[in-house]
Automatic annotation (TrEMBL):
Belongs to the short-chain dehydrogenases/reductases (SDR) family. This is NAD(P)-dependent dehydrogenase (Short-subunit alcohol dehydrogenase family). The keyword Oxidoreductase applies. It comes from the Bacteria. Residues 9-190 form the Ketoreductase domain. It holds the Pfam family adh_short. It comes from Microbacterium ginsengiterrae.
Amino acid sequence: MQQNPVADALVLITGAARGMGELYARRSVAAGARAVALWDIDEDAVTALAADLSRSGVDVRGYRVDVSRREQIVAGLAEVREDLGAPDVVINNAGIVRGAPFWEHDPERDIEATMRINTLAAMWLTREVLPDMIADTSRPKRVLNIASAAGTLANPNMSVYAASKWAMIGWGESVRLELAAHGHRHIGVTTFCPSYVSTGMFEGARGPLLTPIMTPRTATAAAWNGMLRGTPMVLRPWTVKLSMALRGILPTAVWDFVADRVFRVYSSMDEFTGRG
């Protein structure tokens, strides 16, 4: 029987104070994790959640870490190692979105911040934990990257967000292949690509045709189960795969018409407001 990668493991979750991050934390506790390290920029919220989850008897600790800063990731991981040990499971969940035409993005506040939080943070953190994961072959290890369907198809009014998720997908898949090629098959890398999820992050966005906006519980369950199995990519709902297939076989002009006029993908962000 395959060993449960979460049971008796140390799980580290970024963007853990609320939304899907909180749900991954609760799943980790319920799955029998030895300890859970919660990272978030909101110190009060992450401390309160850690205190709540610690009532279960699991050692849950909250840390204020701004993952857009590599030096904070390095320092935060050193603190986790001192307190709890080396992580066995890392969930790269932290993310932000800016919905506007590209030319309206502020270079630092929008473009640089999005790439740092959505992409570089996952790379920096995973680079720091992989040597320990590679060295310890006594149990399965996992890296779960929360990407987006926006990383599989272009969409107006989310160019920088889409770019950050395209980069995460390409990077995550490449790391997965590198680990397998070098014999480190005890480490599973899973990339989760959901369409819109009702966390408030995409408030105002409309789901395309046949693509309902998912609840956080539905989305986290799909990502979690894929991570446990070591599934390389998890795409939800099924229309994400359909769109990828159609985009791959149709001429660009035809796909643009289908995406815009039939599936209404290109207008899904027209009424986006985001989290207040």
